[in-house]
């Protein structure tokens, strides 16, 4: 990416960063950092720019997630993470909903304070190995038995990249249940506008002074742009060359990785 | 269902019958026959009407399936069964496709003669317990790695009824893979027109002289009507009262069960 045409970046005061595929590649082994990303996070903080991680990660609590990132060398805190589970808890409380959870075991503690007796909705996360036929059927039977089924999905990603290859994400299972029950899920997480607005509120910067950096052309780039942000796609993580011909979404710029994005942005300031 | 308004049934020369939900309710215990259905099959045959079973059953070979039906008292033979797997084998041969199978273990023998080395498509059936996260990921990774992914789905049912409740059908998993890979599956089985045409050819009766009897408002009734057949919905199996307000499909008549359908049809002859 040439540095020409980045004049708009001069107004930037804060960055929203996707995590998996931008900071690190996840995997059964815990994942591996993407070269230059830990240093890039340090440089963002040293520059005075604000930083918030905006992730659809639902395989662990934020506490656990941040511990893992810190062990990989990332200088981040729990308060710097905007994630779907806490946003879903707010929504459940507001509407008096009692969820049946089909989520990863390690995410369950995020819902510790929520009444889960006699469920009147289903909350779907990236349950990974918990996506058995028996578990998906249980969620299906609950939904199809409701007069007006309520399905809340923590993200709608198609797939993500782990160290040993691409993996199905929660969106695929959301579509399965939507079809089986003839309902439309409510998405909490990227690319939902309300979720980006929460992340911006936590960042403390208005949309027009924020840049989203992510590897997902639809959830990260498209979602952020619809909220009035600029958005960059990194060529790491789940990025595929065909993304550059996406019929609907065009990033404000492509960068090879987070380190390059930070280089160029800091040069504009 | 009153017997008035059935004048059109006088032209009938053959019946296509759905199986699960019409002849019997399936289940882990092998399933239970629906009252009066075995006798109804005998009466159809005694009347001289032709009969063909037109099923999306993909949890067993036709041989195994017919053995089970005969054990429940149904006088049917393998030649009287039109099922998706043999139709899929014809399609695979015609197009030189080598499938990766994500199907029920008991269906695998139907594909014994098909070259499955170095797969260039995925065939999806009602795999039930085989729908693990690992297996769905394997199918997904194969598809996403193809230049032009080919997904063949043996039916697209949303769910079916077993003796212990409603169960997710292959269509839900088809939607999951369609979304994850951004492809459209080719459906072999009801409601595909080509599949009904095969069943009519095997029945040996033109569409306008055939009646389809099924419990699925979309796959059975809608599919058959689009081929120019009359179609009845039984109030057994997965039938739900809300089907009677379906926005797109209206059966030629409702009947409480197969026995009642046969009673009324035979009275017209």
Automatic annotation (TrEMBL), chains A, B:
Q: Which reaction does it catalyse?
A: diphosphate + H2O = 2 phosphate + H(+)
The cellular location(s) given in this protein's UniProt record come to: Cytoplasm; Nucleus
Keyword field = Cytoplasm, Hydrolase, Magnesium, Metal-binding, Nucleus, Signal
UniProt xrefs under Pfam families: Hydrolase_6, Hydrolase_like
Q: Does the record carry Membrane as a key word?
A: no
Question: Which cofactors does the annotated protein need, by name?
Answer: Mg(2+)
Q: Which family does it belong to?
A: Belongs to the HAD-like hydrolase superfamily.
Top-level lineage group:
Eukaryota
NCBIfam families given in the database record = HAD-SF-IIA-hyp3
GO CC, alphabetical = cytosol; nucleus
Look up the EC number in the record and give it.
3.6.1.1
The molecular function terms in GO held by this entry are: inorganic diphosphate phosphatase activity; metal ion binding; phosphatase activity
Please name the source species: Promerops cafer
The function of this protein is: Phosphatase that hydrolyzes imidodiphosphate, 3-phosphohistidine and 6-phospholysine. Has broad substrate specificity and can also hydrolyze inorganic diphosphate, but with lower efficiency.
Taxonomic lineage from the root? Eukaryota, Metazoa, Chordata, Craniata, Vertebrata
Protein name (Swiss-Prot/TrEMBL): Phospholysine phosphohistidine inorganic pyrophosphate phosphatase
Could you list the residue ranges forming a coiled coil in this record? none
Signal sequence, renumbered to the chain: 1-21
Chief place of localization = cytoplasm
């Amino acid at each position: 990416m040439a540095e020409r045409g980045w004049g708009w970046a001069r107004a930037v005061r804060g960055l929203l960063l996707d995590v998996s595929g931008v900071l690190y590649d996840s995997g059964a082994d815990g994942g591996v950092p993407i070269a230059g990303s830990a240093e890039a996070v340090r440089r963002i903080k040293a520059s005075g720019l604000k930083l918030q991680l905006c992730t659809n990660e639902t395989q662990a609590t934020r506490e656990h997630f941040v511990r893992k990132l810190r062990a990989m060398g990332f200088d981040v805190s729990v308060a710097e993470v905007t994630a779907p589970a806490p946003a879903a808890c707010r929504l459940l409380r507001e509407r008096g909903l009692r969820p049946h959870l089909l989520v990863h075991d390690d995410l369950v503690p995020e819902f510790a304070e929520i009444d889960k007796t006699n469920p009147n909705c289903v909350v779907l996360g990236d349950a990974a190995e918990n996506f058995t036929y028996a578990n998906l059927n249980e969620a299906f039977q609950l939904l199809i038995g409701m007069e007006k089924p309520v399905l809340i999905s923590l993200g709608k990603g198609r797939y993500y990249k782990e160290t040993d290859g691409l993996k199905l994400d929660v969106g695929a299972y959301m579509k399965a249940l939507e079809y089986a029950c003839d309902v439309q899920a409510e998405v909490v997480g990227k690319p939902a506008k309300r979720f980006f607005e929460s992340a911006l509120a936590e960042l403390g910067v208005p949309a027009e002074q924020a840049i989203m950096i992510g590897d997902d052309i639809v959830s990260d780039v498209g979602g952020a742009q619809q909220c009035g942000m600029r958005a960059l796609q990194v060529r790491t993580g789940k990025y595929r060359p065909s993304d550059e011909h996406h019929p609907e979404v065009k990033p404000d710029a492509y960068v090879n990785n987070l380190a390059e994005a930070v280089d160029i942005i800091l040069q504009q300031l």
